[in-house]
Design a protein that fits this description.
The structure is a homohexamer of 250-residue chains. Chain A is an alpha/beta fold and 250 residues long. The first copy, chain A, contains 8 helices and 5 strands. Chain A has a 4-stranded parallel beta sheet, sandwiched between helices. In chain A, helix 3 packs parallel to helix 4. Chain A is globular, with a radius of gyration of 19 Å. Chains in contact: A-B, A-F, B-C, C-D, D-E, E-F.
């Protein structure tokens, strides 16, 4: 059920019976010296397509470029502004709304996109479209807390590298995998948020340990995460859109 | 050292020797049936002014309206769009930059403002101004983890109510204080972010227990938080602005 | 009746019976070597709150930063662009509209804001909200034409300084008060409007005589102006909003 | 010296020796039952071209549509938003700047355009282009205060009608000329600015007395106004652009 | 039937019976060393006014500045961005829509405007206004294919120069007319579109042969083109606006 | 040489020696009852990747959604506004510019994107990046004029269907292929551009004959087009970027 593979007459039949879609978004940004720049959209796409297959819900093509300016010191990163990224993704969702879609699950492969996606979801709910944003690494941390150590869960580390090894092993150069000891940055104060780039912390672009990646663990992650994503899709499918509508004044 | 109380000739003297400022921002939004709508900017202002007094760093007037559309079902909430809020706060920071300011500590009283402030801080770093965002409740949770239970730490609950009782007790009506059992919302799936409003969870606008608030505990919070804020300000004051600049390509 | 001091349940009661609000806006900008930078929003706030008290109409917190780039050569001035200022104030008004407000009196403390506010008022009338903009110095010049000489009525001069002496005397340094002989600027031609800054005319930022300020005269101004503002509020309160609506085609 | 009548090679010669231009802007909006909708841009164009002829300064084609939404209840009015109008006029000025122009006299035929033009002039001064805005009716009121009574000086009244009778008599239908007694609108309070349309005051679109118009008086106005405009152009021509630049910090 | 020459009461009578208008737009840009910068809007205006006269449809004043940055190396060209040009023209059309206009024929004198006009027409059709864009040189090439050789039909060449000779001969300096052999630009590849300026191809700004221009041929062009324009206007006049509305989903 | 498959360290090596990239963009829109919605970006991607392989120039991931509102009546079409599409593609190009790229060949699979891409290319040339836009069907019509009849060359017809049959035959349902006799639309006038949708002309979404598609002819097209694209890339590669820069004033 990939939108790009259907003809419009097939799409018409789908939309006549379904008000839901899955939409993967990612980025093209550095993931250390060993992972491909496309990591985030490739993983999002793989998860979304597998969940579409299992749930019978339509899946869109992945948005390949996202909000990545905090990675820009590392060559080849493409960095879209949050405003433009939000507009682009939102207009895709509004196109779906034109065909009657009321519920969209965005499978987001890149944390830097999240603020823009949350804002977009709020705006679409005002227009009677309910958008949920699914992030696989958050799901994995809740579902499989014992599989990786904290230092293996961050950007370009063992967990993410493992997913690449599982999905497209030819794109990973494990002998270049870096284990980074993060620079302690300047302020240790509690309650403070700083506008730091990855380059402030890491020379390799990896935010911890990546050399311990293995596709075997990734299989557990992939299965658990797809399972949870499908459960979410099924739960959302059953909701009536009026029960998802914004509440009126108290 | 309040900017609004100085004349321009006094400001000129300050800026001749200092490249730093403190800037409180908040919101005007519901905080349950017992707290004032102004809670967030009033607390931010009190913390910022106290820290200014102790650190000798200039403090600006507080921005009173913020990003609060998720509270709008509760009457009297003012909701600014993230785009407009960011522009407004950013142009204040750019004005300071014109007078040589290189470091700004934004004391943010409202979590809903954070995404916009983080984005603004990233944009300003590209213009050689380093903005950090301080949030008191995050600081308090790290500094005083045993003082309140989790259910007392959320929006309009005991911790925040206590701060109001300490700072402006006449504005709190404790006999209206609500203890809310949050509605379990529709989806329990791991890894999912939903565009929910407070009204989806809570009938009173409180997100937990507020009746246990006491000004005594607030005193500890206030002192600990101001202490940490001053430590952060002092640490930032010592930094050379070239060491805060964005890194060049790897 | 300060919005920021009410809880949402109190606000709900107010809005159930009232469709009106008072909204002070000002600026943070130079007012000569003797007056505080906050002059404009502090005076607007004082007038608005007094009028709210006397009329029983709700008053919002003051917007502290406005359209002041023509003062920017004088240190400490915060200058917001007209576009951003209009959006910020407009979104506050639209929030009030969501709760049923149909009439808003903006008490403007800074002439530089006026163009943006007039445009905003025109846009809101198209949305069935009637906004009037009240400026105290214009009102005073009509109500008390004999109290000050023309050279005492302008920016940071005796009239405005007197208001500061009345409302927050501790923020005025009368021994620094300047009496400025304005530079005659380049063009004397009739019918010409020039994009000049205050710095083109004045070395001190004062646009005339300020040393003659006295709180006694300010008391007369304050009382006359508040009286007129309350009369206007009462007159507007009595209007039916359909009689304030935009006319249809001729 | 009309830009639109020159070839680019002629324009090149002009710009090699001159850094100045005249730019008429107006509107297409109701001027009562007797005057043409084009009144404002036609008069601006006539004045600008005459002044160009006498001063040897280049004149641009007139911008025919302006900020006129306050006239929209009267059929045939074209109403551009202030934002779009400002952008359009500004980009013309920026084109001139590309060819070395440093000083522009905008001859504005419509008061509703003024706020946008003043803002544009401020923005251009930041870019080292000095823009002055000339309005003929203001100039006339200062130069010839005895020629018309106040009730004859306003929109579409005797003064403006007379200019039409002088410049394009065939477009005026004097037998339809209206003398309007303005509706007293709702609020008489001092210091108040209201977002009113012409239709709130006037049934005919005329804001006073128009039947007393005569081309003879218009001749005096035209001559006096062109004279003053030329004096202004000559004065500006003599200025060095560095003396017109924005001042630095005080 | 020129809008700018009518009073609002006359416009009201027109709009009571007609839902159509003609709107000329052009540019002020180089047309070689011999043609006036105003060529494009002057020709558009002449065609539109003649067609208005013959069809009884209302004609607006011409927009004199358009999308011409590809001509900017030639002095005196005014270059508006596509975004601003589209907004300006669109808001004129929306004003007409307010008075009931459902069909607008834009007579476009400058090819560089076309992309913006097509986009605007698409947006207006969504608002139930049908805009067609007429270009005289395209019409002429179809109607009179034998009159000029291809090298005489391009920008500022014999065909366009001839129109100037017919309409305003005093503005053409035929002895400066250039016959340009275009520089072969860098890429000859099929299927490639390049962001070139006129200055990449031509030293004079002419894109071929202009010395062969004669007003006699122009008369044939003018008559043929006006005839076709009137036929189009008449055909559009007869359409019911519901038959011009956007189709619903397939 | 796919950007998304490289790591940042590999990208760094590429950018150290190369200042060029290939960037495919397309759309997701109806292509008749037999072709996949993704046709345009899938073909663009295939051509771009093949050309990258042969030329050694880096290729980006394809942008999958474009400017397609004229197809929206046919289900499943995603329609991005020209403004948002331009911003999204432009910010990708600006990211490349940050890494030293001076020349970009956009391989555009969808004609509806062209206006936005041409505008973007003009804006980037002002920033010293030279963007050319390659469209395969235009190239094919010039290179292989005898292979298809005119009625087979348009949207979703034999030529385009053949490309799908060659590249991803499993996504084409030839038994649903439509041969459409286009509705003659309302106006036949010369020189007129109308804001029509595909649905105004065609019931199937096909704009001519598609049943005659064969992969054999597509092979000739694909080879010829890739050959021409590679020739263009090679020619551009040899250019010095200063020779591609915008010309200065004449």
């Amino acid at each position: 059920m990939l939108l790009n593979e259907m003809s419009w007459t097939e799409a018409k039949k789908y939309f006549a019976k379904n008000d839901m879609a899955i939409f993967p978004v990612g980025s093209n940004e550095q993931h250390g010296p060993h992972n491909p720049l496309g990591t985030d959209y490739l993983i999002a796409q793989a998860l979304a397509q597998k969940a579409a297959e299992r749930s019978g819900v339509l899946c869109l093509p992945a948005v390949p470029f996202g909000v990545s300016s905090h990675h820009k010191q590392f060559w080849g990163t493409v960095f879209i502004s949050p405003t433009t990224f939000k507009s682009y993704v939102k207009e895709v969702c509004l196109s779906l709304r034109y065909y009657g879609v009321k519920k969209i699950v965005i499978v987001n492969g890149h944390g830097g996109n999240l603020d823009a996606l949350k804002q977009l979801a709020r705006e679409l709910r005002e227009l009677d479209v309910f958008v949920s944003v699914f992030q696989w690494w958050t799901a994995a941390a809740e579902l499989l807390p014992d599989l990786f150590k904290p230092g293996e869960r961050s950007h370009a580390c063992a967990e993410e590298t493992a997913m690449n090894l599982l999905l497209h092993p030819n794109l990973v150069k494990m002998k270049s995998a870096a284990d980074e000891v993060l620079k302690e940055y300047i302020f240790e104060n509690a309650g403070v948020s700083l506008p730091l780039d990855i380059a402030d912390y890491s020379a390799s672009g990896v935010l911890g340990k990546s050399s311990t990646a293995s596709p075997r663990k990734a299989k557990k992650v992939f299965d658990a995460v797809v399972g949870e994503l499908v459960r979410h899709i099924d739960a959302l499918k059953k909701m009536r859109s009026k029960d998802l509508a914004q509440k009126s004044k108290a």
